[in-house]
Amino acid sequence: MLQHRTVGDLMTRSVVRVQRGTLFTEIVHVLQEHDITAVPVVDAEDRPVGVVSEADLLAKASRRPDPHDGPGARANAPGAGNGTGAKHEATTAEGLMTSPAVCARPDWSVVEAARTMEEHRVKRLPVVDDTGRLVGLVSRGDLLRVFLRTDRAIREEIIEDVLVRTLRQPPSAVGVEVNHGQVRLSGSVRRASLVPVVVQLCQSVDGVVSVDHQLAAETDDTGDEPSGS
């Protein structure tokens, strides 16, 4: 079977975290000290309950009076008095955080983690173990590291793992070219039904950006009847 890098392979294991009661200024110091843009908030059992990001902190800062505004300007500002002030008035991580925390598991694939980030519109995911405790953090940048693989490594995996080990195809039957993660396949496979399988397996190889092919088949086993018969 093909071996893919998982969230556990890519995540940061030494995760900076804060408690529910961590103060606003302390959170700012943590972000600055560790050069990060967000930090998980954990409970007494080290289980993530939310995430505090720079955006959360700036949302609070944006509600502060601007010295250039006139008296009463803040009260008349867009969004003032609309019931969203609780978070802006918070002074601890529990009130400032975005919750609940959207988490990943170490055995997740890159695709699963990326889809979760996209669905929830977040830039990072705390990673938890079977007990829900924090064991890592995976970011968009971490997931993109799979695309740093060399073309040579991608080509070797396609030939050795996809074609030979998985599909039992002779390595000389299919030509494989890889250029900046873009794969081009040529040659032939034994059966026509294998063509989409080859393409899909190649697309799933870590680091592959796209797959183009001009594959022929020795036999047509798709059951398509010739036109006019």
TrEMBL record:
The keyword Glycoprotein is assigned to this record: no
Chain positions covered by the region annotation Disordered: 60-89
Assigned keywords, A-Z: CBS domain
One Pfam family recorded for the sequence: BON
Species this chain originates from: Streptomyces ehimensis
Domain BON: 150-219
InterPro entries, alphabetized: BON_dom, CBS_dom, CBS_dom_sf, Diverse_CBS-Domain, UCP036990_CBS_BON
Classification via SMART domains: CBS
Domain CBS, first and last residues per copy: 11-70, 97-154
The protein, known as: CBS domain-containing protein
Keyword Cytoplasm: no
